[in-house]
Amino acid sequence: MRVTGSMQNIQLLRNLRNINTDMKTGQQQLATGQRISKPSDDPVGVGYQMRYDTDLARSDEFLNNAQTGSEILKTMDSLMQQASDVLKRARTLTLQARNGTFDAQQRQVIASEVKQLKEQMVTIGNSTYNGRYLFNGQKTDQPPYTVNGAAMEVTDSGLFYLNVSPAVNVPVSITGEIVFGKSNTDNVFKVLDDLAIALDSNNLTAISDSLTKIDDSVDRITISWAEIGARMNRFDLMENRILDEQVNIKDQRSHVADVSTPEAITDLKMKETILQAALSTGARIMQTSLIDFIR
């Protein structure tokens, strides 16, 4: 086959175009840090990359749920501390009021503070997180208690769950009747109401009886407090697990889609050398004329 000058020129231009294309690809990979910029770069790799991206997106959702659950429970943990402090103060006041040295007027002064403690307990029962009531089950848009009717009001018994994995739902909410007691019984609001009435009426027997009821309310809140702590630990464990899984997924994705910067730089330098060699060779070929063959 006879190789003409035109054929040499065409082949030279084709080689230069291929080298320039490869260099452009290498430069883009270095600039973006991604080995795959379009499906044609690696059809099989794109499939894996899409799967890893989907897994990461879903994992981010689970992680956000776990973090949200932890924050809600931290808020509830603080509220249990506040409720416990209210009952401790109520107990202290009750011990003072049943002392025989106190007169009716002094007990009425204590009754005023007990009424304030009851209102504070209602405020705790109506606490929210991001605008959602924490102790009214699934009716998170409705306050569970009122100051005047808290002793008789019934909270929603539903539970609010958060997904932390495809197969795991962790309960977040605790209904108010579990924490503060059921309506029409000696729930914490009724206990404080009855104590205030006993203090106002100077009824020493009823005042003394309130101590046992206050202790029962403390026990009920303590049990709920322990449950909140257990759920907090569960969310923390799930959050750590999700973070570990994300590290693995990101590592697998990196092997498929990310560029190894040292290798990419070396490859680009090699292509630059090849380009310079091709240009040098091409310059000599393009300068060849009929005179060169006559010589």
TrEMBL record:
It is found in: Bacterial flagellum. This is Flagellar hook-associated protein 3. Its main location: other. GO terms for cellular component: bacterial-type flagellum hook. GO terms for biological process: bacterial-type flagellum-dependent cell motility. SUPFAM superfamilies: Phase 1 flagellin. One of its GO terms (molecular function) is structural molecule activity. Keywords: Bacterial flagellum, Cell projection, Cilium, Flagellum. Pfam families: Flagellin_C (PF00700), Flagellin_N (PF00669).
